[in-house]
Amino acid sequence: MMWAVLRRKAASAGSSNLVSYGKMQSLGKARPALAGSMSQSYADTILTPEAPTLGRNPKLARQIHQGVPVNSMPIRNVVSSLKSEFSTQMWSRSFSSDSGDLVDAVVPFMGESISDGTLATFLKKPGDRVEVDEPIAQIETDKVTIDVASPEDGVIQEFVAKEGDTVEPGTKVAIISKSGEGVTTHVAPSEPPTQDAAAKAEKPSSPPPPPPPPQPETQPPKAAPKQPSSKPSATEPQLPPKDRERRVPMTRLRKRVATRLKDSQNTFALLTTFNEVDMTNLMKLRSEYKDAFLEKHGVKLGLMSGFVKAAVSGLQNQPIINAVIDGDDIIYRDYIDISIAVGTPKGLVVPVIRDAEKMNFAEIEKTINTLAKKANNGSLSIDEMAGGSFTISNGGVYGSLLSTPIINPPQSAILGMHSIVNKPMVVGGEIKARPMMYVALTYDHRLIDGREAVFFLRRIKDVVEDPRRLLLDI
């Protein structure tokens, strides 16, 4: 229908004008071409609402192609030619937020059981240059300390949070400028100003106004000071002055430890049993094989691996020590995860040795060393401290001779190691000096009877005093 209208218009308009791109062109030469074979080339596209020859459609496009009659062209060729003739230009306005120069450093995911933390300290200052994944702040949680890392290389523009704020995962902490534009970086102090510059700086721009004359003040007569009483009142306690005290807020880790230990005392029926272990054979084994052990495995042979193996043997002989009460049920664990209590400057942490029953001495020593280093550096993860079915606490490294450890919930028992002291012991009817250690087992008496607790501690004593039992499984 469209082409019929065009043909009629072109045939009847002898002297009509063709509008192309806003210019008027005569159709005197176009008439014979339209009537003939249309072998000539004519105007390109027209798209104008003012063309009188295009009927009532103001956006009608007409195109005359080279050497092809207009009535014989397929419509798809016309459409394709229109697409090639008309180009579309996409543009957008640039905003400062779209430049990509500024990136946000946010609080990372802190663990399944941790919803928030306290912004403990900033490791950098505004203007410092940082690299990607470089820590810029530390978040203190109930369990671990988490670093906030820089997402890109750049310069810290500003901090949007303050130390001591409670933050959640995803909270913006700092703004990093990747280019460093508009940020004053920290540089070494420049040379001192010259004398002329100093003199100009000291010279005031205008003299200050003279001060008003002092007005005489009439002061009321002072009352005579009261003489302090020579004898303090018997009802008033003499307290130390407040300027000799310091009030420091508790860290989240310390508050969490305090809460858990108090809950342990309030929940469990705590009872502690003791025994004494002769460390002669284990220390002799360590002394004889420490060099060969270090050369082969790359780690030193310590005493903790021997006690971990002894605890595994005891838990296998007394499974109730490895169980826990859950409501009206008892959960027996078919795995042995040994938690090792580690004291750090920030508080007590308890990383876990997973599947200790499947490890040998070298694997246990390597795992303990790795966890201890992470604990001291504050880089332990939540997964490395979650779970645990039994805990060993070695207070002997601090010189403790005897103690009653507190159970780490939701466990049911904890073994306490202490310092090694030479004592006179009766050996073979003779009195000899022996390196002795007190060991203590604190257990939940609701679940564990004294019989099982004593048998367990006795197994610890037997294996440590004679490590060959582990080889023979006796």
Can you tag this structure with a few keywords?
474 residues; alpha+beta; seven-stranded mixed beta sheet; four-stranded antiparallel beta sheet; 10 helices; 26% helix; 23% strand
Question: In words, what does this structure look like?
Answer:
The chain is an alpha+beta fold and 474 residues long. Helices cover 26% and strands 23% of the residues. The chain is built from 10 helices and 19 strands. The strands form 5 sheets. Strands 11, 14, 15, 16, 17, 18 and 19 form a 7-stranded mixed sheet that branches. The chain has a 4-stranded antiparallel sheet with strand order 3-10-8-5, with no helix packed on it. α7 crosses α8 and α7 packs across α9 (450-465). Residues 13-72, 82-98 and 187-205 have low confidence and may be disordered.
Radius of gyration (CA) equals 44 Å
How many angstroms does the end-to-end distance come to?
Answer: 104 Å
H-E string: HEEHHEEEEEEEEHHEHHEEEEEHEEEHH
Low confidence ranges? 13-72, 82-98, 187-205
Structural class: alpha+beta
Largest beta-sheet details: 7 strands, mixed
Percent helix:
25-40%
User: What is the residue-averaged pLDDT?
Assistant: 76
Number of strands: 19
How are the elements arranged and paired?
Elements: H1 2-12, E1 17-20, E2 23-26, H2 30-35, H3 75-85, E3 102-106, E4 117-122, E5 129-130, E6 135-140, E7 145-149, E8 154-159, E9 166-167, E10 172-177, H4 195-202, H5 252-267, E11 270-278, H6 280-297, H7 304-317, E12 324-326, E13 329-331, E14 338-344, E15 347-349, E16 352-353, H8 361-377, E17 390-394, E18 413-427, E19 430-444, H9 450-465, H10 468-472
Parallel strand pairs: 14-17, 17-18
Antiparallel strand pairs: 1-2, 3-10, 4-6, 4-9, 5-8, 6-7, 8-10, 11-19, 12-13, 14-15, 14-16, 18-19
